[in-house]
Amino acid sequence: MNVKRIIANLHAAQPAEVDEFYRLILGLELVMDHGWIRTYAGSERMAVQVSFASEGGSDTPVPDLSIEVDDLDEALRRVAEQRIPIEYGPSHEPWGVRRFYVRDPLGNLINILQHV
């Protein structure tokens, strides 16, 4: 048996509230909408991963999601354009990533990162 996907399911009383953040900021496509669940996806093929942590690294809280992008500066520009407060960073971390934390519209802590 092989694991084919791992899907993050986050509670949202109104799933459409996250649309602008995940579509405009992160560029994901709405691929399924049943009203009670909305699923966003990118076109990249991804490795299956799941992490368990006691902290988020560099004495930060554990983020709800970590999202790797190919252009962190563009992600920062989009976040600034939408006036979304940055909770941490941007920071170059000793384990080889550059990252920052923001909160999505539901309050989930999102770690946006790029390997350097």
Automatic annotation (TrEMBL):
- Its domain of life reads Bacteria
- Positions the record marks as coiled coil are none
Q: Name one Pfam family in it.
A: Glyoxalase
Matching entries from SUPFAM superfamilies are given as:
Glyoxalase/Bleomycin resistance protein/Dihydroxybiphenyl dioxygenase
Name this polypeptide is given: VOC family protein
Q: Where is the VOC domain?
A: 4-115
Provenance organism: Ectopseudomonas khazarica
